[in-house]
TrEMBL record:
InterPro entries: Cyt_P450, Cyt_P450_CS, Cyt_P450_E_grp-I, Cyt_P450_sf, Cytochrome_P450_monoxygenase. This is Unspecific monooxygenase. PANTHER family: CYTOCHROME P450 (PTHR24305), CYTOCHROME P450 12A4, MITOCHONDRIAL-RELATED (PTHR24305:SF166). Pfam families: p450. It comes from Bradyrhizobium erythrophlei. Heme binds at C410.
Amino acid sequence: MSIAEAWDIPAARPRLVPPSPPRAPESMTALQRMAKMRESAIGTWGQRAYEEDIIRGHFLFNSSFILNTPDAIRHVLVDNYENYSRTPAGFRVLRPMLGDGLLIAEGRAWKHQRRTLAPAFTPRAVSTLIPHMVAVTDETVENLKRISNGPVDLRETMQRMTLEIAGRTMFSFGMERHGATLRDFVMEYAEKLARPHFLDLVLPRGWPAPRDFARARFRKRWTQFIGMLMAERRAAGKQEGAPARDLFDLMNAARDPETGEAFSEAQLGDQVATMILAGHETTATALFWALYMLALDPVAQEQLAAEARQVSADGEADLDRLKFTRAVVDETMRLYPPAFLIARAASGPDVITDIPIKKHDVILIAPWLLHRHEKLWRDPNAFVPERFLAPAPPPDRFAYLPFGVGARVCIGAHFALVEATLVLARIIAAFRVRLLEKDPVMPLGVVTTQPDRSPVFEITPR
């Protein structure tokens, strides 16, 4: 039985197929694909990419390979991951915002950071941060009640809420004074500097591309802002002997278990920037898509509401009992993975499923493609949360990659899943969510899987 056949789950309701961009024509030239990539990488893939195991192409002077088989993906991301590093374009786009933090670091620097940060993101450590998540979510619900029965921009609401959660879990203080500035930084970078240009793609990492100078000026202002937030948090102090109250406490006290080394001030700043940005933008995007699909699928919305209201009626939210809510989150990240593309360049020769790989060849693992691949999923384009519930089998670990896999799997995966599940349950328990417009919202692949616009919702108190 194929993997897709294993997912033949009887549907208790009509299956929603949410909108997605048209597949690119197979005749599209390399230059056309490069131009399209600036608008949205998702729009550069044709039907073959959703059907075939491995697609070989050319990227400038090297070969490129799209991998859609779990065995090949395991080889690149687990078995021989040290042979594959970020591409120059990926490094250029991410470094001005994230510096040399965990998401960017490689080799020994990455291993030091990963070992040092790991204790701050264990389930036990994350559980101490849940009160921050719940408090911000409940405040958001109360604010939404004041504007209920009218039009609301839920995308902006989710961005503001997850930013507030990021601020409180990181620093124990709200982002009322700094949130607008932080959002301005994010929007400025996304609109002006995050989309790769031709020279970003072709020049080696050590050669500055024209946009790198503007990125360097941006980074100087950005690191000053992060430094100001850290200084404000330090001024608030910490009681001697008191347990850690936020991520800053945990990261400031963290030591490499092998060397005893702490983070330098610059390293700590890069980690703070990484956690705030990665922690709020990707979760906000996932929550937006979840709310969008629940608005399109009222039956699933009512099922989630019933579960959430039952759990909350019994006292504190029990994450283990929010099974359907978690399944909605999982299915949302299957259809709209926040990180839609993992691009790696081979540091040396290799062999992947009998295919020879040369140094500098480009390896593409696209969760957007993988999660909709016709050999790996039954009804791959349909919204079916039940595929993540028993008795359905769990997905292959290398066919479902919302947080990556292997040594470089996202360190904040548990944090993000807890936050998204709690937030979605509390919002849908409080409101019915409906779209006020019929035009479809299309996903764009630009850094994250973003909506092409913010649709207008209506929320009604339950």
